[in-house]
Amino acid sequence: MEQAALRRPPPLPELIRLGLISLLVILAALAWTVTSDQMSGMDSGPGTDPGALGFFIGVWVVMMAAMMFPSIAPMVVMYARMQEGKRERGDAAQAGATSVFVAGYLVSWTLAGLAGYGLFELGRSAFDDTFSWDGAGQYLAGGVIVAAAIYQLTPLKDACLRKCRHPLMFILQSWRPGRLGALRMGVEHGGWCVGCCWALMAALYALGVMSIGWMAFIDALIAIEKLLPWRLLANRGIAVVLLALGLAVAFAPDSVPGLTQPNTAEAHQAMKAMGK
Predict the structure, then answer these.
(1) Nearest-CA neighbor of 130 among 142, 138, 209, 118?
(2) Cβ 202 vs Cβ 147: under 8 Å
(3) pLDDT of residue 225
C-alpha cells in the first residue's frame, strides 16, 4: 500500500538541500584528507600490496566515502525529499533514515572491497611469479584496464548506470519504509553502484590501489559519467580513455605519467613504508 501511494516528492527546502549536499562534500573532503594521510608514500604501483585485511578495509571504507559521496548526492537528496513528502502528508517518517540509507550504501562497497581483497590475494598466491612486473605483470595490468574499457560498452554497465543516474526511478521502484527499509535500500543502491563501477575499481588496483593520484583520476571518471548530462558521450569517452591507458601500461609503461613501476627505487621505498 505504501509503495502504491508514493509519488514525485515535493522539493526540499533550499536550506536543507544545500545542507545535505554540503555535508556530503565535507565528509568526502575529510575522507580524502584521512586517506591521503593513511596512504602517503605507500604507492608501489600495479600490484601494490594492500596490507593486512583490517588495515585494508579501514582504508577502503574511507576511500569509498571520499570517492562516492559527491556522486551519490542526487540520490541522497531524492531520498530526503521522499521522507519530507511523507512528513508533509502526515505519514510517519523515522528520524535518521537518510543516514541509515548512506550507511547501507557503504555496506555494499565494503563487501565489494572484501571480494576484491580476496581475489587479489588468491591471484597473488597462485600466480605471483608469473605475473610479477618483470614477467607478465605489465600486460596483466594493462589487460585489466582494457577489460574495464570494454565493460563500459556492455548492457550490464548501461543498466547499472541508469539506476545510478535516475534517483526518482530507483526510489519509486525500491521504496521500503522505516530504518530497516532505508538500510535495505542503501544496500541495494550500493549494489547497483558496485555493478556500475567495479571495473573502474579493478583498473585502480591495476594502476596502484594506494595511489592518491590514480584514486583521484578514477574518482573523476565516476563523477563524470554519473553527474554530467551527456550519459552516452561520457560513457564512450571514458571507454576510449581507459583503452588508451591500458595499452600504454601494457606496452609503454614509461610513457604513463604518475605510474609507479614495481622494482624501482620509488616502489621499494613505498614497500618499506608499509613494513614489507
Answers:
(1) 138
(2) yes
(3) 93
Cell of 254: 614509461
CA gap 276, 271 in Å, rounded: 5
Q: pLDDT tens digit string along 71-117?
A: 999 999 999 888 877 666 656 567 789 999 999 999 999 999 999 99
C-alpha cell at 151: 565493460
> Position of cell 535495505?
184
Instruction: Give the number of other Cβ atoms within 10 Å of residue 60's Cβ.
Output: 22
> Whose grid coordinates read 613494513?
275
Written as nine digits, the cell of 230 is 551527456
3-state secondary structure the chain: CHHHHCCCCCCCCHHHHHHHHHHHHHHHHHHHHHHHHHHCCCCCCCCCCCCCHHHHHHHHHHHHHHHHCCCCHHHHHHHHHHHHHHHHCCCCCCCCHHHHHHHHHHHHHHHHHHHHHHHHHHHHHHHCCCCCHHHHHHHHHHHHHHHHHHHCCCHHHHHHHHHHHCHHHHHHHHCCCHHHHHHHHHHHHHHHHHHHHHHHHHHHHHHHCCCHHHHHHHHHHHHHHHHCCCHHHHHHHHHHHHHHHHHHHHHCHHHCCCCCCCCCHHHHHHHHHCCC
Grid cell of 51 as nine digits: 596490507
